[in-house]
Amino acid sequence: MRNKLVGLYKREPNSKLKERLLLIIRVECDGMIPAHAAKELHRSKPWASYWLDRYEKEGIDGLKDKPMSGRPPEVPEEMMLKIRKELTENPSGWHAKEVMDVIYQKTGVRYHEVHVYRLLHKWGFSPKVPQKRFVNTASSEEKKAFKKRRRKS
After folding, report:
1. Is residue 105 part of a domain?
2. Is the pTM of this model over 0.70?
3. 24 in helix, strand or coil?
4. CA distance linking residue 16 with residue 87, whole number of Å
5. By residue range, what is the domain housing residue 53?
6. What is the CA radius of gyration of the chain?
7. Predicted confidence (pLDDT) per residue in 37-67, tens digit
8. Residue 74 and residue 112: Cα distance in Å, rounded?
């Protein structure tokens, strides 16, 4: 049993699942008290109890994350694909407010500007203009080299 769990642990790329497997190895195979195993993993006792219960009921598959449903989107997926296609056909780029207007005209749903940025990022678009947060990231030498100098006449 231990060899099987250790093998799964070594092959697992997901860090959360690895941590849960380590909990199971420490408690089930090594006989460690769940509270001590939780402390060793820098986790809470309820966290350990939750994953141990899931393991007992569902086995290894119980340690995997279950899909989360979340709120369904207000705009159907087919309509968003059409809007995305329209945006990709324009080579000059888009402003977020323009995309907001396009979505509103086509669907009647008004999204906040921040959410439009999220959608654009999810679709693979990137901003063309640097944001203000990058202004002060240059070193002092770079700033001096960039400054304008007075011409001597």
Report:
1. yes
2. no
3. helix
4. 37
5. 2-63
6. 26
7. 999 999 999 999 999 999 999 999 999 999 8
8. 13
